[in-house]
Amino acid sequence: MVRLGFIALFAGIVIMVAALDAGAGPEIVTWPMLLAGLGVGALASQLGSVTVSAVPDEQSGEVGGVQNTVTNLGASIGTALAGAVLISALTASFLTGIQQNPAVPKEVSSTAQVQLAGGIPFVSDNDLKAALDKAGVPTETANAIVKENSDARLAGLRSALSLLAVVALLALFPGRRLPTRQPGAASNQTASSEAEEAEDP
User: Fold this and answer.
1) Residue pair 135/124 in contact by the 8 Å Cβ criterion
2) Is residue 182 classed as helix, strand or coil in its secondary structure?
3) Residues of 1-17 as b/e, b for ≥16 C-beta within 10 angstroms?
4) How far apart are CA 39 and CA 11, in angstroms?
5) Hey, which of 59, 145, 162, 177 has its CA 20 to 30 A from 47?
6) pTM exceeds cut of 0.70
7) Radius of gyration of the chain (CA)
8) pLDDT one-digit tens code per residue, 187-197
9) pLDDT digit string (tens) for 44-55?
């Protein structure tokens, strides 16, 4: 079940990466997110059972607390890592795009590179167009910058999602070492057998 969960999560992310396109609408996320959500649900249910059943009942509370802590820590680190990849890819793609776009004057691309070297904000095309119009940027140049922004956003999203897909794929290998039976079941069975033998005259 855990391995099926990782496969569903991986498949959902890959489908979303493949469906990302400049003209795509919000409907493209429905099936990929449903598939990824099923994978996460399968993981959450089974991994909790494995960890809690691996210890005696009196220690299940402590183990559950440790699992929740590690889960939250992993989610935080994963979100930060994916966000860092997204912003890095977005910035690199946007700056490269405006430098190579003949519709963007050299002085504009040089100024943008200096001002945006620390990271480009994730803004919509409409917000960027409004800001460029307010700054008095010529229409042809503004349209070229907005197009590069749109392409850079897609590149950033693809990079971040690809990283998460790789993590889900790599997690399949250690997942093979998970026990196929609840760890506590065997030890409880052994303890019951020993107790029965001790009671026999």
Assistant:
1) no
2) coil
3) ebbebbbbbbbbbbbbb
4) 9
5) 162
6) yes
7) 25
8) 555 544 544 55
9) 888 777 777 777
